[in-house]
Amino acid sequence: MSASNARRPWVxxxxxxxxxxxxxxxxxxxxxxxxxxSLREQNTIFNGPIIPRSFTGSAYxxxxxxxxxxxxxxxxxxxxxxxxxxxxxxxxxxxxxxxxLEFPFRNTLFVLLLTTLMMPSTALIIPLYxxxxxxxxxxxxxxxxxxxxxxSAPFAMFLMRAFFQTLPDxxxxxxxxxxxxxxxxxxxxxxxxxxxxxATVVIFQFLSTWNEFLIANTVLxxxxxxxxxPVLFTLMGQYSTNWPALTAGLTxxxxxxxxxxxxxxxxxxxxxxxxxxxN
Amino acid sequence: xxxxxxxxxxxxxxxxxxxGSPLRKSQRVAGYVFIGPTFVxxxxxxxxxxxxxxxxxxxxxxxFGTPRFVNFDNYSRMLSDPIARRAMIITLVxxxxxxxxxxxxxxxxxxxxxxxxxxxxxxxxxxxxxxxIVSFVVSAVLWRLIYDPNIGTLNRLLGAIGLDSxxxxxxxxxxxxxxxxxxxxxxxxxxxxxLIYYAGLQSIDxxxxxxxxxxxxxxxxxxxxxxxxxxRVVTGLIVSLGLLNGFKAFDVIFVMTGGxxxxxxxxLGTYLYSLAFGSTSGSIPQLGYASxxxxxxxxxxxxxxxxxxxxxxxxxx
Lengths: 279, 317
Description:
The complex is a heterodimer.
Chain A: H1 2-7, H2 9-38, H3 58-66, H4 69-100, H5 106-115, H6 121-134, H7 141-165, H8 169-177, H9 182-190, H10 195-211, H11 214-219, H12 228-238, H13 243-263, H14 265-277
Chain B: H1 2-15, H2 25-56, E1 59-60, E2 68-69, H3 73-80, H4 82-115, H5 118-133, H6 136-147, H7 153-160, H8 177-202, H9 206-214, H10 219-230, H11 232-247, H12 251-256, H13 268-276, H14 287-316
Antiparallel strand pairs in B: 1-2
Helix pairs in contact in B: 2-14, 3-14, 4-8, 4-11, 5-8, 11-14, 13-14
């Protein structure tokens, strides 16, 4: 690319723009369509034009009230928050230990965690369901939280470990000479230096927990305790022809994700590069 | 992801030489206390389930009483069950096609994004990535509406441009259901791959291109001999993530088709789920047989990780 760029940069750039912009329109179309549909009158979905002539917010009102949207939204918010905090606490502690502390069997334990890192929840859903059942945690948000935190903590630990490894050992040794306990060093010296790492784990964890469907849909049966994703799934059956209400529900469920993504895009991309490419 | 783990394991072995030196007790205690909570949860809710499902796959069990040990019967049953065979083939086909498409389109878009003015690049990156951050449920419901045979947008658009003959019940036809699912999967995955490839492109030393240009290499040659080899590790990661995501596919298919019509989009994940949990008709859950599919899924995912380690290792040389 750069050979031609060196002489006539705008030719290549214009060509790339010319290809990318229509592609972006195509990629963004489903979301634009979702917004437009959520804002149109119910009676125009069958034969009205694709861009509606008049807009109304009534579908949002309907989605908000008739499916107890606030309740499920709140369920999602608090389940996600507790998971993020839990994963963060466990992952920073263990990530730091594996990166900077020395103790017997460290490598053995580490490899054990490592080998099972990629096991998908599809493959584990049967034993997890049975396990929660025998623990009496089926149909409880606590049970769901336990599964979320334990399923995500190892991967977050690997991410955090990579961040901790970039810190110089001398820093910790100096703090030890000053007489700090291992926990004070971790809490007071190390943790403040790993803000970017923490931001990455928070955003990853937020997205994956907010979007999780399989486990929530399987272990929770009581409708009131459901987070958003399983509710959106049942909504599809309930509102099979009320598309404005359905797309309004989808739109509302996506808002937090988009907000977090747009606001934290830089950390997100940076974290992904650390996790994926730099190594 | 898995690249990180690979590197991590290497550094772990290197640092093990330090174990010759005397360990400080406070560090030892702190080490165990710090990893304790994660490790206990891991043992209880990751390792134990893996072992338990492996055991269940050797039994016949409806969820009540004690599982009956049946040796490898579930696995041989899998070979003679036409739906299982079909699900296996569909899983492999979907995984293969989406992985190839995602790798290829991801690379092409990343190269283009890397070439445009930086402001356009930021805009394009933001837009392309959004399908990847919404949940699979949202994208599946959305696309189900787009594919709707009667009032779906796709058919209406085809009608509007005079291609009525192409209008279709996309998800109800055995011929079009898999391509329709592939479109949704690729749509959701491009942004992530583009971003990783883009990061990879950014980390290539520009001096390499300058030197090559001075030696008279044209753009295509530069791409073949500098860009592609430099991106080998990234490609390994993207391919293995594609394989992993394909092997564990569930959400999109479950929501869009439930594995239908007539098992034409049945994959390992949806089939094991319907065997274990799906029986609304009151049939007995087949937890043993379903667990055998869990084990197969785990083996496939492990192979994907091994494939990635192998690709990375070759690139290191």
